[in-house]
Amino acid sequence: MNQTFKQLTYIAFLSIAVCAPAQAQSPGGTLAKIRDTGEIRLGHRDVSVPFSYLDDNQKSVGFAMDLCARIVDAVKDELKLPALQTKLQPIQLSTQIPLIENGTIDIVCGPATNTLERQKVVAFSTTIFVSSIRAVVPKDAPIKTFEDLGGRPVSLTSGSTSIGLLSARAQAKNFQTKNILTPDHAASFLALTTGRSDAFVMDDILLASLIAGSPNPSDWRIIDDSLRTEPYGLIIRKDDPEFKALVDRTLATMMKSNEFQELYAKWFTRPIPPKNVNLNFPMTAPLKDAVANPNDKGV
Length: 299
What we know:
40% of the residues lie in helices and 20% in strands.
C-alpha cells in the first residue's frame, strides 16, 4: 500500500513538472486580465492637447490616443482576440496613477512625466515625448525668469511635477510664490487669463497648445527659463514585464518604420481639431534622440 502511494505521488509530481512550462508560457499580469475580461481599459484626459483631449463630438483624440490604438492592435494580435473591446476611462493628473494601481485602467494614454519617484509605484513605456517645464505669462509682463515670480500668484495643476520643481527653485534662489492649485490644465490657464494668477507653470508643449487654442494667442508668451527637461511615457502597471515588452516593442517598431514620426507631424505641425489650430511644434533634438535610441529613462 505504501509503495503504491509512493508511485502515485511520483506520477503526480511528473505531471506537475510537465505541465508547469506550458502554464508559464501563458500571458500573465495585464495581458491575462485583458484576455480574461475580453476588454482593455484606456485612461484618457479631457484637455491635454494634443496628447489626449475631447473634440467637438466629445470623442477622445490625440497623439497619445493614436499610439494607444496601435498598442491595442498589438494586444489583439498577441492574444488572438480580434473582437477585443476597448473601454475608455476619463482621468486627471492626480488620479492616473491610483487608477493604474487599482486595476481600473490598463494604460494611461496621455502626457505623463517619467520620474524616478513615480517609477517606485508604476512603470513607463519607451519615451514618446520630451518637454521643458516653463511658464506662460502675459506678453508685456516683466517676467523673464522664475525668480521674477517671487511674491506673485502662480497657477499650478494638482499632481504635476511642476509643483516640486518650482518649490525647489524657490528654495534654492530664496524667493516665494503664492501657489494656486487647480484640478486640470484648463483651470490653471483660466486662472491666468482671468487675472487670478500672473503665470502658469507647466510643460512647454501643453502651454503652447493652450495658447494656440485661446481667443487671443498673441496676448501670451512662454518664458525661456526652464526648471527641467522631462521625458514622457505611457504609464502601465509596475512589475509586468510581458505587457511592458509588448508596449515598448510596438512603439519601437513604429519609430523604426517612421509611423511614429508621421503621427507626430499630424498632431504637432499640422492643423488639429476642433479649431484647426497648428501648434507649430516640430520635433526637438532631445526627442529625435529618444526616437533614434528608444529608452525609458526617468528623471
